Amino acid sequence: MKRAATETQSKKLYHYFSVISVTLWLYWLFILHHNQGTEKNMVLIRLIVGPLQANCFILADEKTKDSVVIDPGDDAENILKIIRAKGFRVKYIVNTHGHFDHVGANKAIKDATGAELLIHEGDAHVLASAPQHSRAFGMIPVSSPPADRYLKHGDVITAGEISLKVLHTPGHSPGGICLLEAGMVFTGDALFAGSIGRTDLPGGDLSTLLRSIKTNLMTLPDDTKVFCGHGPASTIGDERRENPFLNAESGFE
Ligand SMILES: [Zn+2]
Ligand SMILES: [Zn+2]
After folding, report:
1. Cys staple from 57: which of 15, 37, 65, 70, with CB 3.0 to 4.6 Å?
2. Ligand closest in space to the Cα of 197
3. 189 C-alpha vs ligand 1 centroid, how far in Å?
4. CA 97 – ligand 1 centroid, Å
5. How far, in Å, is the centroid of ligand 2 from the Cα of 75?
6. What is the helix (H) or strand (E) element at residue 80, kind and residue range?
7. Average pLDDT of each block of 10 consecutive residues along the chain (253 residues)?
8. For 87-129, how does the pLDDT look when each residue is reduced to its tens digit (9 = 90+)?
9. pLDDT digits (tens, 9 = 90+) for 182-194
10. DSSP string, 50-109
């Protein structure tokens, strides 16, 4: 009897702490902006997932509940818990690139929601090599199903009022993409707050990455919010002024 009571208590405690930890793992950002006179009501949720602390984003249309999951790198259960709690319908899973820390929960989210998996065609082979790549990093091997559809520069992914424009930004990986909505851009591992993506992995190239950032990102308005594949958010203006990799001494012209 006493033991049963203790078990119930510990279950309660576990539940309590798991609720707290899930709450701490995400923040809410309500975005309201005007689009041809109509207001878009979108919700953006960030979760930090997996041992490499990648950012997974859930972007949802509040009215229709249509949503897009960007880079479900790990922790499928936490991602699905939020999707179910909010009643979101996941239309697409989009990988900014195929590295294992951004794709580990693709299968579980796809199986649970029926969403289509999208990636740039240039990273199809990177996605396929996620098991070897994760093993080389000393991680539990990660795998993903192949994409349902390949993206190319200029494509637009729509879900409810969400409209994400695909910008091909190779350099960190051959098929790396950024996703542009009005006033915000998801940069994957191309651009970080105060840094840029590594270019020493297979298919990486520094001058290609700098050119991608210059032509696709530094042409955006200063107040564009930047949501990176790892670490905190920034703005295009802050990165233009302060990112040490984006000045002439670093080969950025
Ligand atoms: Zn990466
Ligand atoms: Zn990464």
Report:
1. 70
2. 1
3. 5
4. 7
5. 15
6. helix 76-86
7. 44 40 44 50 95 97 97 98 98 98 98 98 97 93 97 98 98 98 96 97 96 98 98 97 88 74
8. 999 999 999 999 999 999 999 999 999 999 999 999 999 999 9
9. 899 999 999 999 9
10. TTTTEEEEEEEETTT-EEEEE---S-HHHHHHHHHHHT-EEEEEE-SS--HHHHTTHHHH
Written as one letter, the residue type at 3 is R
Distance, CA of 104 to CA of 173 (rounded, Å): 17
Q: Which helix (H) or strand (E) holds 45?
A: strand 38-49
**Residues 185 and 179 sit within 8 Å (Cβ to Cβ):** yes
Predicted local distance difference test score (pLDDT) of residue 250: 76
Alpha-carbon Rg of the chain, whole angstroms? 19
Report the separation in Å between the CA atom of 236 and the middle of ligand 1, taken as the mean of its atom positions. 20
pTM of the model: 0.86
What's the Cα-to-Cα distance from 29 to each of 11, 66, 93, 233, rounded to whole Å?
32, 17, 20, 12
Ligand nearest to the CA of 230: 2
> Residue 168 CB: number of other CB atoms within 10 A?
19
Q: Which ligand is nearest to the CA of 51?
A: 2
Ligand nearest to the CA of 190: 1
The CA 6 to ligand 1 mean position distance, Å, reads: 45
CA–CA separation, 187 and 5 (whole Å)? 49
* Closest ligand to residue 99's CA: 1
| Sequence letter at residue 218 | M
Nearest ligand (C-alpha, residue 48): 2
